[in-house]
């Protein structure tokens, strides 16, 4: 319960800094807000700790889920959905890829019950309630929108493709001369079709 409060209230602090940068930009408009969550100690109760937060009234929408995918594609195109995706990108960039706010969901621009994925367990005191792989998935799947551009965020696709290229180049290194090589006669070789897939 304490970790849950820490996650949501830390994400809320990032959202405040994001708002301070985004709101002055011409045409940006309203910014998503993560509502605070409070820890209540009830020593006389069987369950001594509880959390309390503002009740959100209206249509509850999931803009993203723990695995970093922007799953609700109809909502992704909404203003709130796009600004949530931009917020995730902004946090990712501000923390040099070490932290990602996930589970962005709520009513309109008011969000609650968010998650945090960290590149390293224990980063800034987080136990990591979301898998590290979610950061990799977000980097591969995120599509920048006009709000990312307004904030001057760097494209994650370029960064991701460069990292994938560097990894594939390492794996293509020739083996050293002491390695035994298996040769196939030229006439036995068949042309291969390579299909590239874009994330």
TrEMBL record:
Name listed for the protein in its UniProt record: Alpha-protein kinase 2
Domain Alpha-type protein kinase per the UniProt entry, residue ranges: 1-156
GO cellular component, one term: basolateral plasma membrane
Species: Opisthocomus hoazin
Its EC number(s): 2.7.11.1
Swiss-Prot/TrEMBL keywords: Cell membrane, Disulfide bond, Immunoglobulin domain, Kinase, Membrane, Repeat, Serine/threonine-protein kinase, Transferase
Catalytic activity, reaction form: L-seryl-[protein] + ATP = O-phospho-L-seryl-[protein] + ADP + H(+); L-threonyl-[protein] + ATP = O-phospho-L-threonyl-[protein] + ADP + H(+)
Pfam family, one: Alpha_kinase
Family to which this protein belongs: Belongs to the protein kinase superfamily. Alpha-type protein kinase family. ALPK subfamily.
Biased composition regions of type Basic and acidic residues, renumbered to the chain: 187-199
Superkingdom of source: Eukaryota
Principal subcellular localisation of the protein: membrane
Primary enzyme class: transferase
Chain spans, region Disordered: 159-199
SUPFAM superfamilies referenced in this protein's UniProt entry, alphabetically: Protein kinase-like (PK-like) (SSF56112)
Residue spans of biased composition, Polar residues class: 168-181
């Amino acid at each position: 319960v304490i970790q849950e409060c820490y996650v949501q209230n830390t994400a809320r602090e990032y959202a405040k800094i994001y708002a301070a940068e985004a709101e002055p930009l011409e045409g940006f408009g309203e910014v998503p807000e993560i509502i605070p969550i409070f820890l209540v100690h009830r020593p006389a109760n069987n369950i001594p700790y509880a959390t309390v937060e503002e009740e959100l009234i209206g249509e509850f929408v999931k803009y993203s889920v723990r695995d970093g995918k922007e799953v609700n594609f109809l909502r992704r195109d909404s203003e709130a959905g796009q600004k949530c995706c931009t917020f995730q990108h902004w946090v990712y960039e501000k923390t040099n890829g070490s932290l990602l706010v996930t589970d962005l969901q709520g009513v309109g621009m008011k969000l609650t019950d968010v998650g945090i994925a960290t590149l390293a367990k224990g980063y800034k005191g987080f136990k990591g309630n979301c898998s590290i792989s979610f950061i990799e998935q977000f980097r591969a799947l995120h599509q920048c929108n006009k709000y990312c551009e307004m904030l001057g965020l760097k494209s994650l696709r370029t960064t991701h493709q460069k990292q994938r290229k560097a990894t594939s180049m390492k794996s293509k290194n020739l083996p050293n001369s002491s390695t035994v090589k298996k040769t196939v006669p030229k006439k036995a070789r068949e042309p291969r079709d390579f299909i590239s897939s874009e994330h």
